Amino acid sequence: MRYVVYALAVALAILHQDFWYWDDTTLVFGFLPVGLAYHCLFSLCAATVWALAVIFAWPSTIEDQVERELHKMEGGEEPK
Fold first, then answer.
1. Residue 37 region, left (φ>0) first, then alpha (ψ -120 to 50), else beta?
2. What is the per-residue pLDDT for 21?
3. CA atoms within 13 A on the CB side of 32
4. Does the CA dihedral 21-31-29-16 come out positive or negative?
5. DSSP letter string over the chain?
């Protein structure tokens, strides 16, 4: 799943270059320019990909390292 998240992040980076809506005067819902609507949708997709990255691609060793450091600071022996 980690590589799927990486692929989605790369896809978002490519799709962020939305040159195809620069000259489009279409309005979404009668008031929202299509380029702005695209960026609203893009932002929601980016937030979803970031949430997936935190769930599936976040390294678990970070939490383990912090717990060991906190335990050492409290004067305890390092857990094995």
1. alpha
2. 82
3. 10
4. positive
5. -HHHHHHHHHHHHHHT--GGGTT---EETTTEEHHHHHHHHHHHHHHHHHHHIIIIIS-THHHHHHHHHHHHHTTPPPP-
Residue 44 confidence (pLDDT): 97
Q: Report yes or no: 8 and 52 within 8 Å, Cβ to Cβ.
A: yes
Interval 40-53 mean pLDDT: 95
Looking at the whole model, is its pTM more than 0.90? no
- Residue carrying the six token digits 């896809």: 11
CA 42 – CA 47 distance, rounded (Å)? 9
